[in-house]
Recover the amino acids of this structure.
């Protein structure tokens, strides 16, 4: 007879690691796991399964120390603190700890690195990456004012024309080809991404920019 919840966990494991799911054999360093927590919180939230190896094999946890590490990562090594929920499951006679990290209400969430610096991370597929300047500024961008509009000047027109001819361009590539100042280009990209005119995507953690296929459409 299967333990309650075993199908749930096995179904999660079958998905493999992705942008909202990570496996950990164990948690031995709260500081390191805080990066994953921050990345989940800054993206769309996510689940951590502790007691599961990278290949999906269940090893189980053996003590409550894992929970205390989770608590320390969320409260001591993330700023602001991340909201999380935990649940333990019995699967194949072993205990798996599920940790769900809620999406942050205010981004970015920072995690303290080995040098004591607070760094912001985001999640791309099954990896955590440092947030670039465009993403950091986008998180800060305030679109909550009712009736806010986007104004198109020659700068916006130049950037949009460039991206129509060079989809998937990097920030450095755009800077080199257009002559924009870095600060000006970042401001333009943030505004156009916020209004879903430009799309930012990532390949191996590196950002590239293209025109949105559905400009102005909001989820």
């Amino acid at each position: 007879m299967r333990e309650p919840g075993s199908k749930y966990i096995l179904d999660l494991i079958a998905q493999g690691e992705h942008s909202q799911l990570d496996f950990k054999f164990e948690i031995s360093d709260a500081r390191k796991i805080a990066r994953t927590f921050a990345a989940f919180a800054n993206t769309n939230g996510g689940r951590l399964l502790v007691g599961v190896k990278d290949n999906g094999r269940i090893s189980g946890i053996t003590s409550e120390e894992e929970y205390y590490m989770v608590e320390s990562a969320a409260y001591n090594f993330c700023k602001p603190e991340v909201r999380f929920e935990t649940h333990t499951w019995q699967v194949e006679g072993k205990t798996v700890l599920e940790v769900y990290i809620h999406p942050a209400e205010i981004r970015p969430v920072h995690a303290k690195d080995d040098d004591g610096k607070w760094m912001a991370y985001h999640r791309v597929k099954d990896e955590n990456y440092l947030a670039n300047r465009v993403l950091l500024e986008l998180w800060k961008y305030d679109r909550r004012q009712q009736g806010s509009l986007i104004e198109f000047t020659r700068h916006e027109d130049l950037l949009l024309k460039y991206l129509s001819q060079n989809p998937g361009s990097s920030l450095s590539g755009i800077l080199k080809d257009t002559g924009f100042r870095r600060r000006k280009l970042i401001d333009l990209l943030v505004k156009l991404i916020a209004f879903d005119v430009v799309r930012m995507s990532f390949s191996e953690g590196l950002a590239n920019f293209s025109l949105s296929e559905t400009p102005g459409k909001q989820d």
